[in-house]
């Protein structure tokens, strides 16, 4: 091809640059040059993809929903990390809150992360609805909209959820289970005062998204090269550690079912109508 494949990513952390420098080197060595463009937020990246300014977008689950809706379902996902195929939300509660199940969250002070975080805001409200709790009506909400635009990638709002629980400002909170596991492992959570309450079924998070006009053969070749990256190869282990995965997965129809819950949540909460305003 005459020019590199251009990939968009969001600069949510300082490690994003070394990740994409490493990805560029990897694809160059494999004979399929890429380059990357960094965006400050996912809405700008979504617009850039739709405008044809980039070829592939490294999207969150919410960005995927937005592109899917804007393309009437004609966009495609090429691949994702292993961790993206089994993301989970965890509800945690103060041990003195009296909360033993999701149904008990009604009437309590509920801490949520950034409004556009799938794992810490949108899906938690959906899971509560499935348990018969209307978060807006039945709970006193404490929202931490600290990194809006980055879809919760920075994780700061989830740390604020834990802080609110620790300081007694909230009874229950929701966050990604990866954040909870890491904070507990690092000894930053007093598990005698805050405990895990409920963990969701797995769902999908990030994926590489292309528009319907992206050439099929080029997509196949790009995907093959990406999936060939091995954690057992010391040349790529640091890169994969930075990106938080052990292997890349193809975005099969079976795996893509993991986005269904977020589509439902977006509709339930009327988010698409807000995007249109």
Question: Top keywords for this entry?
Answer:
277 residues; alpha/beta; five-stranded mixed beta sheet; 12 strands; globular
Q: What spatial order of strands do you see in the largest sheet?
A: 2-1-3-11-4
Q: Helix and strand succession?
A: EHEHEHEEEEHHEHEHEEHHEHHH
The total strand number stands at: 12
Largest sheet, in brief, is: 5 strands, mixed
The best one-word shape is: globular
Report the radius of gyration as a whole number of Å.
19 Å
Task: Please state the average pLDDT score.
Answer: 95
End-to-end separation: 40 Å
- Contiguous low-pLDDT stretches (5 residues minimum) are none
Brief sketch in words of this structure:
It contains 12 helices and 12 strands. With 277 residues, it is α/β, with parallel strands linked by helices.
Can you put this structure into words, describing what you see?
- The protein is α/β, with parallel strands linked by helices.
- The chain contains twelve helices and twelve strands.
- It has helices at about 15-30, 40-50, 60-70, 120-130, 135-140, 155-165, 175-185, 215-225, 235-245, 255, 260-270, 270-275; strands at about 5-10, 35-40, 55-60, 75, 80, 90-95, 110, 140-145, 170-175, 195-200, 205-210, 250.
List the helices and strands and how they pair.
Blueprint lengths: L4 E6 L5 H14 L4 E6 L2 H9 L5 E4 L1 H10 L5 E2 L1 E3 L7 E6 L14 E4 L5 H13 L4 H4 L1 E4 L12 H11 L5 E5 H9 L8 E6 L7 E4 L5 H12 L6 H10 L4 E3 L2 H4 L3 H9 L2 H6 L1
Parallel strand pairs: 1-2, 1-3, 7-8, 7-9
Antiparallel strand pairs: 3-11, 4-11, 5-12, 6-9, 6-10
Helix pairs in contact: 1-9, 2-3, 4-11
